[in-house]
Every structure is written in C-alpha cells, then in structure tokens.
Amino acid sequence: MSYNLLKGKRGIIFGALDEKSIAWKTAERVHEEGGTFVLTNAPVAMRMGQINELAKKTGSEIIPADATSEEDLQNLVEKSMEILGGKIDFVLHSIGMSINVRKGKHYTDQNYAWTQKGTDVSSMSFHKVMQTLYKADAMNEWGSIVALTYMAAQRVFPDYNDMADNKAYLESVARSFGYFYGKEKNVRVNTISQSPTPTTAGSGVKGFDGFISFAEKMSPLGNATAQDCADYTVSLFSDLTKKVTMQNLFHDGGFSNTGVSQEVIERFSEE
User: Fold this and answer.
1) What class has domain 10-269?
2) Which residues contact 155 (CB under 8 A, 6 or more apart)?
3) Any idea where the domains of the chain sit in the sequence?
4) For the residues 142-146, what does the mean pLDDT come to?
C-alpha cells in the first residue's frame, strides 16, 4: 500500500546488492511512495549483485562510487543532483564489511590492516558521505540521513567480531554529525538498529542462523524483516518524523528491552 509519503523527494541509496538486502527493499518502497533516487555501490559489489535489475524496476540511474573515496563521493553527489534535478532529501547508508570476519580471524587475533579497512568502509564512510553532502550544501532543509546498525554496538555478540566496534563508531558519527547538521541545516541524522536479518552481508557472520533463532525467541513481536526495515526507513525519510534526529532507533521486535523471554526459559529448562 502506498501513501505518497515521499512524493517529490529525491535521494541517494547506498548498498543495494541483491533482493535480500535492506537497501534493495528500501529502494522498492521509496519508489512505491513516489520518491526518486540514484543507486550507488562500490564497483566490486556491483559486479557481484543485480543492481541493474533494481535500477530498471525503479526507473533509477546508477553511479558507481567507493564510499571510502572522497573524490568518488564528490562525483556521486554532483551527478546525483544533476540527474535528480535538485538538492537531496534523503540518503540511506547501508554499507558494512569486515575482512576479519570474512577471513575467520578471531577478535583477539585481528589483522589490523583489515580492521582499518573495515572501519573505513563500515563507519568512517558515513562521516565522509555526510561531510561531502554538507560541504556541497547538497541536502534540502528537513532532509533525512539514515544508516543501518546492529545492537552489537551496545552488547557483546562474540562472533560479530570487529563489526561491533564499527557499528559503535557509526552510531557516534550519527550523533556528532547530526548535531551540526541539525543546528545549521535542519537536516536530521539517525541510525536504525535492525534485528539480525539474513542478508548477504549478515550471513557471513559465524553462527548467524543461531543469532536469528535466538532473537526470534527473545523478541515479543518477533524479528523485524528486511521489508519491515524498509517500511521504517521510509517513515524516517518522510515529513512525519521531522523532529527525530541523533537517535539510534531499535527496530527489533522488542529484543533490545527484553531481559529474557518465556520461550528462552522453556528452551533451557528442557536440558
């Protein structure tokens, strides 16, 4: 169902890889709600994914960009405004990568060159995106910038590894940049702390199926799906949330406020 929440709004969506990704689902929902946007991803990710299919489906153009490159980001912002015909109203940062996780390196035995690369891609890129937008005065007043995060930024999930540190940094950037962007430009900046979701990126974490099953049993409303997250993101892009900024918003079926659930108690009582 469409409510025309984003009619006339323009944006940039980072990170749509395939139809399982939250960025992909969000792009589809933004399109349904009347928004127009440019799709972007790193050149290597674009070769892996099916982003051309999404672009065709939503009538969008694609601009390849390495989110760690200031030069690429400047080009992306300039070209996006040309293509869309004006300033930007919304941005989704849906980017995350850990080489340590991918290569099976334990948290206590990190390759720090890989750690730095992961931090640059997963969290410093968020600062770079916003700084590029800010310096170019590319955001419309009351625009909305959203990044995706996970609760491992606050609590220990052992196999989430250095991605937990990356997400903590990401959330801090949202608060710090959100202050200046709000005060000076009336632009809001938030992060969504999503339930564990079986995306291509998430599935790379060891024991991820166990994560999902545990969270499902712990959450009063059950896990939020990628589609649910797309709906929530649309609400944050809309004018209905104009005074929400610098927040880390838990979108996890109540998991974050549940100490223990009856289902989990019963599961362990069986042993």
Assistant:
1) alpha beta
2) none
3) 10-269
4) 99
